[in-house]
Design goal:
Blueprint lengths: L3 E4 L11 E5 L3 H5 L8 E2 L13 E7 L8 H11 E10 L1 H4 L3 H6 L1 H10 L3 H5 L6 E4 L2 E2 L20 H5 L2 H4 L3 H17 L1 H5 L8 E2 L3 E7 L3
Parallel strand pairs: 1-2, 1-4, 2-3, 4-5
Antiparallel strand pairs: 5-9, 6-9, 7-8
Length: about 220
Amino acid sequence: MHTVLNVGAGAGSYEPSRTVLAVEPSRVMIDQRPVGAAPAIRATAEDLPVRTEAVDAALAVLTIHHWTDLERGIAEMSRVARRRIVILTWDHEVYRQFWLVRDYLPAAGDTDGKLAVPLSRLTALLKDPEIQPIPVPHDCVDGFGGAYWRRPEAYLDETVRAGMSMLALTPKPQLQPGLARLQQDLASGEWKSRYADLLDQPHLDLGYRLVTADLSS
């Protein structure tokens, strides 16, 4: 049986069934975990309260940009996992071409650039890592930054924006002009005309990347 430690687990949105323990620094997020989810302990990636080689794999999904010490966090994941490290992150160089940040919210693009961990920095900490693009489906049910690339009206919802780091951390006055233009373009049909090539695409590469490293070798 394969066992997984979910590092920076949040409320457990991305948690595989084989997770045996979740690590999350926020009590608020832990309290939102569903009934039946793996047990969670309040701790950080940089100081995992888990014995060495305790699990088969250590998983980190859209969390490394929140860590205070990337090198220490990766070292801890390498310590506790016997077989593999799996990290879902994103490549800002690709993401900054996303129509939302390129054409409407460049300030959010700047915020994203400050948040993102360069892939070169991450992969330099891993032995022979594999990088796999993870295209975003048009009907993605999650609420991360690129989830609504084919449903632009969602970005006008303040509640939706509050769940996206790049938008939540960008001062509202810097977002308002672009959001107003987006609203106008949706109402006039300009957005649909400008991005017509997206409307039939089932998925889109926005720079999300799955990085894996085999420890057993």
